[in-house]
Amino acid sequence: MVIETVEISTPVEESGVPPVSWAAVAAGAIAAAALTLVLLAFGAGMGFSAVSPWGNSGVSASTFQIGTGVYLIVVAMLASTIGGYIAGRLRTKWVDVHTHEVFFRDTAHGFLAWGLATVLSAAFLTAAASNIAGGALSGLAPAAESGGPVDYYVDALLRSNLTASPNPTDSEATRREIARILTTGLRNGDVPAPDRTYMAQVVAARTGLSQADADKRVSEVINQAKTDLDNARKAAAKLSLWLTASLLIGAFSASLAATEGGQVRDNWNPGLTGR
Fold this sequence. Notes:
Layout: H1 22-50, H2 61-90, H3 99-139, H4 141-144, H5 151-157, H6 172-187, H7 193-207, H8 211-267
Helix pairs in contact: 1-2, 1-3, 2-3, 2-8, 3-8, 7-8
């Protein structure tokens, strides 16, 4: 009779080390957020220096938009890679944990570091933008009291020709009324026909133009305003797509770099010292 021996393997318990090293995640996130702010400040300075108010100087608007998007991706790759590597390298070594589980945990450390860095960067950038905008508005308080962006279109409507004398009946109340008409109409998609007729009458009385010419000027200014708003909308949409791409690439870079940092951490032999 052959007695067959069956070995019963007892499951190996994992060490009491937590699966997430929050200190390493926070360190990687702070490093990534700080590097992001530095690179964005550098990019803003280089971007402002590349744009020139003079014609045929500097880069074009389309080139500037593409360059901004590519730079956002580069910033996300660099900052997230360094932050993810730090998060993986500084985490505590897990004992008696399967290699697949270690790989997953390192990936999670990189992703968590990227997420925390994104939140920190967004908070700092929002605060910085608010302070900059507040300082600019306080320094330009007299100009801000004159009205909003629609005033440009109001000036275009009420611009007198050379043969017309100034009309003393024009008042600031009329300007504010036209500004409200334009604001409401453009917000709703178009200026209604009765409002167009009224503005044309005001323009004709103010500038000395004929009713037909006043109607033409009103249509031209409204179309120009709609074109500017549409261009601003398209620019914002493109920037959102570039920002989304940079965030996704940043998340991937941080996760991949964390696995590399974790492997270096696990393969490090404490008995060996550098020379």
